[in-house]
TrEMBL record:
Residues of the full protein shown: 501 to 777 of 789
Origin: domain of life: Bacteria
Start and end residues of each EAL domain: 23-275
Compartments where located: Membrane
Organism field: Paenibacillus albicereus
Protein name listed in UniProt: EAL domain-containing protein
């Protein structure tokens, strides 16, 4: 009985309750956040390894919560997926990112590409292709300047294939995010309309530390080249990682070594600075 009492006490020790209460408040606040404009996009540049040129940006969601401050997408995206609101939030992010990229292009950043993350729930919702087409029409962004990031699990689902092919046929670049971290077979790379892969940070962080990570990255770069896919390495933080990736002909680099994700305003500054150099 003593043990039971102890467990009971531990279970309700308040920190658990606070966590659950916070999660509930976040979950309940998602719709309001969408309606009141509490979401914001930050942008992280992608750098062409060979030239050092800024070629694209990844749009990353931020939630400016009235009580909790800036909430990480790691926390609220799972809640948005649970409630299904990710479909609307994702559509908002797509429209915002495309409109912003068009504005930057018109201000001189010709050909700049914007990458937007998709959630599995957006594939299950009706008419993802129609949503994307309307956003491109309304914003005037060229489809070749839009990249959509999907995960291996989304790519592997047979029922998503027709959708992916339609998006590719519109001229959109499809990329596999967090490549190598989920359950998948390599054979899907040959039958899917995908143009590039993003090497996950968990492999990049092993460069210079774990030969097995280096072997995996090396193999990914070889297979991508043979399949004519371009490769972005994510989470690049050190010169050592950069030189390994350069040496093995990785196409593009994304990571804190060059830029952290930053607000639209700060990103606009970076784009201006680069152009006037
Ligand atoms: P992700 O798509 O893999 O995005 C990369 C994450 O790595 C971002 O975290 C980015 O800030 C972080 N990162 C970039 N460079 C470095 C680096 O050099 N070192 C380290 N340690 N981290 C780096 P963030 O912004 O917190 O986003 C987390 C995840 O939330 C994303 O992972 C993505 O899965 C999801 N997410 C963000 N925005 C959206 C969105 O609009 N829609 C959907 N469905 N998911 C999103
Ligand atoms: Ca991503
Ligand atoms: Ca990623
Ligand atoms: Ca990730």
């Amino acid at each position: 009985a003593k043990e039971e009492g102890k467990n009971h006490y531990k279970w309700f020790d308040g920190t658990e309750e606070a966590g659950a209460a916070e999660l509930m408040e976040l979950r309940n606040g998602l719709r309001r956040a969408l309606e009141r404009g509490e979401f914001e996009l930050h942008y992280q540049p992608q750098i062409e390894a060979a030239s050092g040129r800024l070629t694209g940006l990844e749009a990353l969601l931020r939630w400016n919560h009235p009580r909790f401050g800036q909430v990480s997408p790691q926390k609220f995206i799972p809640l948005a997926e649970e409630t299904g609101l990710i479909v609307e939030i994702g559509a908002w992010a797509l429209r915002e990112a495309c409109a912003q990229n068009k504005a930057w292009q018109d201000a001189g950043a010709a050909g700049l590409r914007i990458a937007v993350n998709l959630s599995a729930r957006q594939f299950a919702a009706p008419d993802l292709v129609g949503t994307v087409r309307r956003v491109l029409e309304d914003t005037g962004l060229d489809p070749s300047c839009l990249e959509l990031e999907i995960t291996e699990n989304m790519a592997m689902r047979n029922e998503n294939l027709a959708t992916l092919e339609q998006l590719r046929d519109m001229g959109i670049l499809l990329s596999i995010d967090d490549f190598g971290t989920q359950h998948s077979s390599l054979s899907y790379l040959k039958r899917l309309p995908v143009g590039r892969i993003k090497i996950d940070r968990s492999f990049v962080s092993g460069i210079g530390v774990d030969e097995r990570d280096e072997a995996i990255i090396h193999a990914m770069l070889l297979i991508a080249r043979r399949l004519k896919l371009s490769v972005v390495a994510e989470g690049v933080e050190s010169d050592l990682q950069l030189s390994y990736l350069l040496e093995h002909d990785c196409d593009e680099i994304q990571g804190y070594l060059f830029f952290r994700p930053q607000s639209a305003e700060q990103t606009g500054e970076v784009l201006r600075r680069i152009r006037h150099r």
